[in-house]
Design brief:
It is a single chain. The chain is α/β, with parallel strands linked by helices. The chain has 2 domains: 3-61 and 381-433, Roll (Urease, subunit C, domain 1); 70-371, Metal-dependent hydrolases (TIM Barrel). The chain is built from 18 helices and 19 strands. It has helices spanning 70-73, 93-99, 107-120, 136-143, 172-190, 211-224, 236-246, 250-257, 285-291, 300-306, 313-319, 334-349, 357-371, 404-412, 438-442, 445-454, 456-459, 466-469; strands at 3-16, 21-33, 36-41, 50-53, 57-61, 63-68, 123-130, 146-153, 156-159, 167-170, 197-203, 227-232, 264-268, 295-298, 322-325, 388-392, 417-422, 425-429, 432-433. The strands form 3 sheets. Strands 1, 2, 3, 4, 5, 16, 17, 18 and 19 form a 9-stranded mixed β-sheet that branches. An 8-stranded parallel β-sheet has the order 6-7-8-11-12-13-14-15. Strand 11, helix 6 and strand 12 form a beta-alpha-beta unit. It is globular, with a radius of gyration of 22 Å. The model has no long low-confidence stretch (mean pLDDT 97). The structure holds zinc ion (ZN). Residues 67, 69, 231, 267, 328 line the site of zinc ion. Zinc ion binds at residues 67, 69, 231, 267, 328.
Length: 479
């Protein structure tokens, strides 16, 4: 057992059980013993192995990222930032998924870089939704992150043979086989000696799965005490296809299947019936999500790049939705997503007094923890896990130092994050990740991306090159 004592800390974002939320605490001590917080308050007098001077520090709980695809999305840096397909109501998701495939052996480099970036931005718990690849368990275990691995499966895959329609290649047998493989992998992860690896049952997209497998997978999750996650109401295209198939909205379809409720996390449930881009005749979706306490993974960045926003964060929170924040794509920078979540809520609500810094900070910590049905992460309180982020108040972007969370989210972002502890172990020290080799892995990304680009022409129905589908920011001229 090691006892670490942060002494006389300038600011602690502590959990106030009387309001069931965070509150500032000044000039107090925080102590953690092994992997658990054992003391928060004035003048700790007990033993300790390590004492840290709390001057110019602010301690906050680690962030809970409830939706990301770290192994693959990093390979789209330079490809996806300006990629919107007008015939698909601006989302570029379907075209990219159809024309770009990442080699299985390249994915662990992607995860190594992205996990490191997430920890540098204060993420201590991560939901990683991916199709399993060689080396995944190894990189998860080495990272030191508190992991929720969601090994994906689908009974159909997307394809296109023209510019405007999304079509489905059915392979139900494969979907069921991959579902079984996912359950076995989750069992292995839960038995891992680190105790930090957990699993989530994940049919990846609502439109790529049969009703039978959606229900069976949710049942399997419930029997095993596991969470369940899928993408639903994530685009106008998907909304329209689900209506065409079932006559009701994606959310109403999930409700009818009986899969909503506690323990279900939906990415991203943004394009719901009353959204201004949808304007369906019902106004039921948000109420169904809220009344059932379903969790929604709100990931503002990839959507705002397509010109789409959640309408809006506070409406979801007020309806009873367990709203958490995810990074989803790029950059793997949690605090930028918090900032965008706040700003986009204000734009969507046409109201500068919503999407407060406190609201998004809550969503990024305790909100995410609630989505994962936990009360021992996403907060600094006695008995909670020692998942702690140390902010450097001496950083110029944190000055003049009046309100650390406002400065962190709206000015400094990850630049103020000095140290990170997960389960009592230090994983970031002086802005460097201790557990992963970020620089080496980042150096391997271009090779993998070039392999992905070289296959585009053959995979694209129109035979276009990667330069035609996703042009560079500027034309290249002869030197
Ligand atoms: Zn996603």
């Amino acid at each position: 057992m090691t006892t670490t004592h942060f002494k006389n800390v300038d600011w602690i974002v502590a959990w106030d059980s009387s309001t069931d939320s965070h509150a500032y605490l000044n000039g107090a001590d925080l102590v953690f013993k092994d992997n658990e917080i054992s003391f928060i308050g004035p003048s700790y007098n007990g033993d300790s192995d390590v004492v840290v001077d709390g001057k110019d520090l602010c301690l906050i709980p680690g962030f809970v990222d409830i939706h990301a695809h770290p192994a693959s999305e990093v390979y789209f840096r330079g490809l996806r930032e300006d990629h919107s397909v007008p015939e698909h109501y601006m989302t570029g998701l379907y075209e990219r998924s159809c024309v770009y495939a990442i080699d299985q052996d390249d994915k662990h480099h992607g995860a190594e870089v992205s996990y490191a970036d997430l920890m540098l931005s204060g993420v201590t718990t991560l939901v990683d939704i991916t199709f399993p690849y060689p080396g995944w368990t190894d990189v998860m275990a080495r990272s030191g992150l508190r992991m929720y691995a969601a090994p994906g499966f689908n009974t159909a895959t997307w394809y296109r043979d023209n510019h405007h329609q999304l079509k489905y290649d059915e392979n139900e047998a494969k979907g069921w086989r991959d579902f079984e493989t996912a359950l076995s992998l989750i069992d292995e992860l839960r038995a891992h000696p680190s105790g930090l690896l957990n699993g989530i049952v994940s049919p990846v997209q609502i439109d790529n799965n049969t009703s039978d497998i959606l229900v069976a997978s949710r049942d399997a999750a419930r029997e095993r005490g596991l969470l369940w996650t899928t993408h639903a109401s994530q685009s106008v295209v998907e909304f329209n296809i689900m209506v065409e198939r079932h006559g009701i909205t994606p959310i109403q379809y999930l409700d009818k299947l009986g899969v909503l409720g506690e323990g279900a996390i939906l990415g991203h449930s943004m394009l719901i019936d009353d959204h201004s881009w949808i304007r369906w005749h019902t106004k039921l979706d948000l109420k169904l999500l809220g009344d059932s306490h379903t969790a929604v993974a709100h990931c503002p960045t990839p959507f705002m790049r397509y010109g789409t926003i959640l309408e809006n964060l506070n409406r979801y929170q007020d309806a009873g939705v367990r709203l958490g924040i995810g990074t989803d794509t790029l950059p793997h920078n949690y605090i930028e997503d918090l900032r965008y979540a706040a700003i986009m809520a204000r734009i969507a609500g046409r109201d500068g007094n919503i999407g407060s810094t406190a609201d998004v900070f809550y969503a990024g910590t305790a909100g995410g923890a609630k989505a994962l049905m936990r009360d021992d992460i996403g907060r600094l309180s006695v008995g909670a896990k020692a998942d702690i982020v140390v902010l450097d108040l001496d950083h110029p972007l944190m000055k003049p130092g009046r309100d650390p969370l406002a400065a962190l989210i709206h000015s400094a972002a990850e630049r103020a994050i000095k140290d990170v502890y997960i389960d009592g172990k230090q994983v970031v020290k002086n802005h460097e990740v201790l557990t992963l080799n970020r620089i080496e892995a980042a150096g391997r990304l271009r090779e993998g991306q070039a392999r992905m680009e070289s296959g585009a022409r053959q995979r694209d129905f129109a035979g276009r090159s990667h330069e035609e589908i996703t042009p560079l920011t500027l034309p290249t001229v002869e030197s």
